[in-house]
UniProtKB/TrEMBL annotation:
UniProt GO molecular function: peptidase activity
Protein name (Swiss-Prot/TrEMBL): AB hydrolase-1 domain-containing protein
Taxonomy, superkingdom: Eukaryota
Keyword Hydrolase among UniProt keywords: yes
A cellular component term, taken from the record's GO annotations: membrane
The species this protein was found in: Cerrena zonata
């Protein structure tokens, strides 16, 4: 979501759930796990009857954290789907590498990290992915480039098929806003605090319409824009010219496309996915913007759960 352009520790036994259940508080479905060296912060939502492949959730940004996606842990209870969250490298509770050159950050890096996480939990033979915003782009690239044999289903939620389409969408949506908001969004991460001030106004209409904004959503943004925030990944330009438009037909797993009626990712930004993926279905949440898992939480879980369980 914080993009800069508005122009055209566990050892896994037999299953993830078995390992997590051995150490979690029965009253808390979320389990924090870390590994040392280059640390990736991970979190599990535990289902009491794990009968479906685990769902790996990819957060947006680039540069955010998994916190704002916590509602998706509902699936552990409503659909018996184990859910794995993690903070991508350089973000949140994972290792920060702010001294790396800007060209260190790449989509390939984040795909390799995702692949490592899947193998870390020994779920490479059967898992699904849900990617939100930038996470949806990462998920699509992972399927196209890596062709993980164990990937069962893909959910691309509130994500464009190219950075150009994203920029066109924001350029349209920002038009009704005052000049200072338009200018703040246009300057982007060149001036993070000015951008953040403008983005909060814009996001109240097209990012998350829940009032007040949910605490976990604020926490994810403060990981970039707060007093101790880290803008390293959010400022890296590795998605500036990204597109998958001419490769979407290579997505071969069943795919669900989701967005909100007032979404930053307007319908036309996701249309290439709809047109090109062979096995695809779509759903739009009519009372939502960019975060339907907050704005229409129960409906979102129903749609996602039905897709994953059928």
């Amino acid at each position: 979501m914080p993009r800069t352009s508005i122009t055209a520790k566990p050892r896994v036994a037999r299953t993830v759930v078995q390992q997590a259940l051995a150490s979690h508080d029965a009253d808390d479905p979320l389990v924090d796990m870390e590994r040392h060296s280059r640390r990736t912060s991970k979190r599990l939502a535990i289902s009491s009857i794990p009968v479906h492949p685990p769902l790996v959730v990819l957060h947006g940004g680039p540069g955010l954290t998994h916190d704002y996606l916590i509602p998706i842990s509902d699936l552990a209870h409503t659909a018996n789907i184990p859910v794995i969250f993690y903070d991508q490298l350089g973000n949140g509770r994972s290792t920060h590498l702010d001294s790396k050159p800007v060209d260190f950050w790449s989509i390939e890096l984040f795909m390799e990290e995702l692949n490592n996480l899947v193998h870390h939990f020994s779920i490479q033979h059967s898992f699904s992915i849900l990617g939100h915003s930038w996470g949806g782009e990462l998920a699509a690239e992972f399927e196209v480039q890596k062709k993980p044999p164990g990937l069962k289903k893909l959910i691309i939620t509130d994500a464009p098929a190219s950075s150009e389409l994203w920029g066109e969408s924001l350029a349209q949506l920002v038009q009704p806003f005052p000049p200072d908001i338009q200018e703040g969004l246009a300057i982007g991460m060149a001036d993070p605090q000015r951008y953040w001030a403008a983005f909060q106004v814009f996001s109240a209409v097209h990012g998350c319409t829940v009032k007040p904004p949910p605490g976990p959503l604020n926490a994810s943004f403060l990981a970039i824009f707060g007093p101790d925030g880290d803008t390293t990944v959010a400022s890296a330009p590795f998605t500036d010219d990204w597109t998958i438009v001419d490769r979407v037909s290579q997505i071969s797993v069943p795919t669900l496309l989701l967005n909100g009626r007032e979404d930053m990712a307007q319908n036309f930004t996701m249309q290439p996915f709809a047109d090109g993926i062979p096995d695809v279905r779509q759903h739009q949440f009519m009372q939502s913007s960019h975060t339907p898992f907050w704005e229409e939480r129960a409906s979102y879980m129903q749609v996602v759960g039905d897709f994953l369980n059928n």
